[in-house]
Design a protein that fits this description.
alpha/beta, 7-stranded mixed β-sheet, disordered N terminus
Length: 281
């Protein structure tokens, strides 16, 4: 008999983007080129405004993919009927429809500093179901969450970065949780132009998934990624936090203008300049 080896797992990274956020997309892609080309990157269109986005994907060797979004778009419309332009943010969940065993999703107002391959293989059902950057206290639920046992003591997180597997969390799970508990979701979700993040938190919490910060499952990794971080230092390998742990990426979550003078901004501007030159070549 021949020895049969289990097939190797397929890993990848995913983003959503369109031409409106090209000024963020290009530095992200340049940082990806500098640090993570060993891992395939999939770009999911935010909407149909993607002429320049398609060209950028070609220039950087990124997979431009268009998974079937009909059911997810219908769910987003159901949850946010008055916000057609913003509810497409839920299309980030289409990363769970990609032909991957594990996927790292990232918002594009991010730049990458280190190789992310060490983040794969850390997911484990019942132990590390869903990996995030770090806990947060804001922009998820309102005070009514305390009325529900399954929400009372859970860890809240920013969903601009996560590591997931469709074997643990699938698009079908989002549909089923909302079908069952849509009224609770609307009762507890934080308002204020928040769309995907309350959904991501609610579905993982309602399913009882073990949400794990990256620093708890990857030795030496920092929980820091915020663009306003303090005490950051740089060495030949990239930035480190105030404790000396490795910062893998910087995220301009909530920024209202392009990077200018904070600790990660010089690196962002360098990637932006390199990207502009590459796109002109």
């Amino acid at each position: 008999m021949q020895n049969s080896q289990p097939p190797s797992k397929k890993y990848g990274m995913a983003i959503i983007a369109n031409d409106k956020i090209l000024n963020w997309l290009l530095p992200f892609l340049e940082s990806y080129l500098a640090t993570n080309t060993a891992t395939p990157l999939y770009l999911i269109p935010y909407d149909e405004n993607v002429t320049l986005t398609r060209r950028a994907a070609e220039v950087y060797g990124v997979h431009f993919v268009e998974p079937d979004s009909a059911e997810l778009d219908a769910l987003a419309k159901r949850l946010y009927p008055m916000f057609p332009g913003y509810r497409r943010r839920l299309r980030k969940f289409l990363c769970l429809a990609l032909p991957l065993d594990e996927v790292i999703y990232l918002d594009v107002d991010i730049i990458l500093f280190r190789d992310f391959r060490d983040m794969f293989g850390l997911l484990e059902a019942g132990r590390n179901d869903f990996i995030v950057a770090a806990p947060t206290k804001d922009y998820v639920y309102n005070k009514k969450r305390d009325q529900y046992d399954f929400l009372r003591d859970v860890m809240l997180f920013n969903d601009g970065f996560f590591v997931a597997s469709k074997e643990i969390l699938s698009l079908k799970d989002f549909q089923e949780v909302i079908d069952k508990d849509e009224a609770i979701f609307h009762a507890v979700r934080q308002r204020g132009m928040l769309f995907a993040q309350p959904v991501t938190n609610f579905v993982t919490h309602r399913m009882g998934l073990k949400v794990t910060p990256l620093r708890d499952c990857l030795p030496g990794a920092s929980g820091e990624s915020f663009y306003k971080a303090k005490g950051v230092t740089f060495d030949a390998g990239g930035p480190r936090d105030v404790f000396g742990d490795k910062i893998y990426f910087a995220h301009w979550a909530g920024a209202v203008s392009l990077p200018n003078h904070r600790v990660f901004d010089a690196a962002w501007r360098q990637f932006a300049n390199q990207a502009a030159a590459r796109m002109k070549a």
